[in-house]
Amino acid sequence: MAKRAFDIFCAALGLALLAPLLVVLAVWVKLDSSGPVFFRQERVGRHGQPFLIHKFRTMRADNAGAQITVGADPRITRSGELLRRYKLDELPQLWDVLRGAMSLVGPRPEVPKYVAMYPEEMRRLVLSVRPGITDPASLRYRNESERLAAASDPEREYIEVVMPAKLALAADYVKQASLGGDLRLIFSTLAALRR
């Protein structure tokens, strides 16, 4: 209950304070390339319920292809490059937090394709909480696309190496979750964005 109240307060405050920035970014995305301002994608949420996650669009509107981003992906727009570098594309997820689909801190939500590959026990544990904007795995794998770009088979690297490691971090988070721990992760995330 305290976590949800904290999420609502912070998301509402964040949206109010960041409104001018959000408008500027939305206009930039729209002017930079044709297509919608927001990217919406189905992700798997708490208790396995699907939901649409919101981000600023960082790829061309005709971005059909892999569901993972590898290195200097040619689908990424000019505005998208900067938005991704500073994680500004994630800001619309404050709306997802406010509406209850997500939390500020929690395991990052995955697409159904990869959730179907989770071991059953791990799936139940990780999906027992709301997914988050940030979590320990987000910090550890902040440069995930560069790592995948160095692999001979990026998707296999993701499925066999990166995803299991991220799942283990998510499971540890769920088992030890606390408001104090969430605050530390939020501050660590903000500090990482300045690097």
Outline the structure in words.
- There is one protein chain.
- The protein has helices at residues 2-32, 78-85, 93-98, 112-115, 120-126, 136-140, 144-149, 154-176, 179-193, and strands at 38-44, 50-56, 103-105, 132-134.
- By secondary structure, the protein is mostly helical.
- The protein has one domain.
- The strands form 2 sheets. It has a two-stranded antiparallel ribbon. A two-stranded parallel ribbon has the order 3-4.
- A hairpin with a 5-residue loop joins β1 and β2.
- It starts with a helix and ends with a helix.
List its traits:
10% strand; mainly alpha; 54% helix; two-stranded parallel sheet; globular; 195 residues
Strands of the widest sheet, in order across it, are: 1-2
Q: Report strand %.
A: 5-15%
What is the gyration radius calculated from CA atoms?
Answer: 16 Å
Order of helices and strands: HEEHHEHHEHHHH
- Principal-axes shape call: globular
By secondary-structure content and strand pairing, the structural class works out as mainly alpha
Main beta sheet: strand number and arrangement? 2 strands, antiparallel
Q: How many structural domains are formed by the residues?
A: 1
The beta-strand count equals: 4
Unreliable residue stretches:
none
**Mean pLDDT rating:** 92
Assign a percent range to the helix content: 40-55%
Number of helices: 9
Terminus-to-terminus distance: 33 Å
Summary, kept brief:
The chain is built from 9 helices and 4 strands, in the order αββααβααβαααα. The chain has 195 residues and is mostly helical. Strands 1-2 form a two-stranded antiparallel sheet. The protein has a two-stranded parallel sheet with strand order 3-4.
